[in-house]
Design goal:
This protein is mostly beta strands. It is 14% helix and 57% strand. A hairpin with a 5-residue loop joins strand 9 and strand 10.
Length: 249
């Protein structure tokens, strides 16, 4: 596929996804009733999206709070793949404790439906989860990416805990301090590797910076940028993420 055709394909998928966005929210109460019956599920916390590449399926991420303690809570996450026309479950996967929180809390979720073609026959979808710290003097946030594969009535998670962006630091809440910012981009190799699955190509950009207050001005006094590349190979039904690229959860 040439670049022009690829661009047109991406535009078409974007427009299709946008057109289905309202449909997904409109169907959500019926989906939750079909799946959970009379059990109370807070619809405003649920994320859903009609899968642009396979619009016969709707993707749903449902937080399931279990217990709230003083200063922390325990919350599972259930991923549903639902037939768009009938609202019946095609597949579901429970992720115990995935949304547990304490001083670091879940700040948002979004389905990532880029074309993650992991093999000739299998297209994955992603879920990005944002987390943020509650300390102003020690700011912290991170975004993780998980990939899911639909195999019949089963959902597999070949990629988990991958950091795609993050920031942490320590400062005096006025100016002086140090920060560490990271971004990781993911691409799928064009040729099949082990067990017929394409390798994942990661590019990390890391920036360490420092600021000081001088003559009533806040100045950036140091910045160091490093770049690294990684190649993840499929094996034992998953891609193994290096420890330095894993999120806290």
């Amino acid at each position: 596929m040439n670049l022009n055709k690829a661009a047109l394909a991406l535009i078409a998928l974007f427009e299709l996804g946008h057109a289905h966005a309202d449909e997904c929210r409109d169907q959500l109460p019926q989906i939750l009733q079909t799946v959970y019956g009379g059990d109370a599920v807070a619809a405003q916390t649920v994320v859903c999206k009609v899968w642009p590449a396979q619009p016969q399926f709707t993707l749903v991420a449902v937080p399931l709070p279990k217990v709230r303690h003083e200063g922390y809570g325990e919350t599972d996450l259930e991923i549903l793949v639902v037939k768009t026309d009938t609202r019946q479950i095609q597949a579901r996967r429970l992720e115990p404790h995935l949304l547990d929180w304490d001083a670091v809390y879940v700040d948002g979720m979004v389905f990532d439906t880029a074309l993650y073609r992991l093999s000739e026959q299998q297209l994955a979808f992603g879920l990005r989860i944002d987390r943020r710290g509650s300390s102003r003097a020690n700011p912290f946030y991170e975004t993780s990416l998980r990939l899911y594969l639909l195999n019949g009535d089963q959902l597999q998670a070949p990629l988990e805990k991958l950091l795609v962006s993050g920031s942490s630091g320590e400062w005096d809440t006025r100016c002086t301090g140090e920060w560490h910012d990271r971004t990781v981009t993911l691409a799928v190799a064009e040729r099949a590797g082990r067990e017929g699955y394409n390798d994942l190509l990661l590019s990390e950009r890391s920036v360490q910076s420092r600021a000081e207050e001088r003559a009533e001005d806040c100045l950036s006094v140091e910045e160091r940028v490093t770049k690294r590349r990684y190649r993840l190979t499929y094996g034992d039904q998953r891609y193994s993420v290096p420890s330095e690229l894993q999120v806290l959860q």
